[in-house]
Amino acid sequence: MTMQRRVILEELAKVTSHPTADQLYQLVRRQLPRISLGTVYRNLDILSQTGMILRLDGEGQRRFDANANNHYHICCTLCGRTDDLQMKLIPKLEQNAAKAGGYQVTGHQLEFQGICPACLAKADSQAE
Ligand SMILES: [Zn+2]
Ligand SMILES: [Zn+2]
Known about the structure:
single chain; alpha+beta; three-stranded mixed β-sheet; 5 helices; flat; binds zinc ion
């Protein structure tokens, strides 16, 4: 693993905010001022292809997660904030999908959309 890739992975592992490539680039640049955005993109592609990180292709910009174990996410449609959902994986979801589609299912991602508590509070205070 290159030094650049290690720093990208370390910076991603420090946050739970599911950053976009641009946001991660800003973090990584503090350690490696001369790194390019293209290098960050390329390394994120490699890391997600090898299963070391999760790539979230939900609504809006693509986001990344150092927690590579499957878990569900919820994304705010107003501000784009993305959180982990502390809930169990739905049992037999992949078996059912395999049965329905005739595919050999190798994985799945589930992302819910909604309005986050901060945006809800903002909407409440504006309504008053
Ligand atoms: Zn929000
Ligand atoms: Zn996550």
